[in-house]
Write a structure and sequence with these properties.
Blueprint lengths: L25 H12 L12 H6 L7
């Protein structure tokens, strides 16, 4: 069984460092964040319509 300490950095595949978990360095952490900001990563599903979201009844949310 593999523990998370044995898994490589998801960006560059180097050994992970505990200070930057789950990455090996600040550089890889920043690269991952930039991918989220640039929409390189996406959650599967249909695109959300901002107008439809704005019309929702916000008082009935959990």
């Amino acid at each position: 069984m593999s523990t998370s300490a044995n898994k490589p950095c998801p960006i560059c595949r180097k050994t992970r460092h505990p200070d930057y978990h789950p990455f090996c360095s600040q550089r890889c952490k920043d690269r991952d964040l930039a991918r989220w900001f640039s929409d390189s990563y996406a959650v599967p599903g249909p695109p959300a319509d901002p107008d439809e979201q704005a019309q929702g009844n916000w008082g009935e949310q959990d």
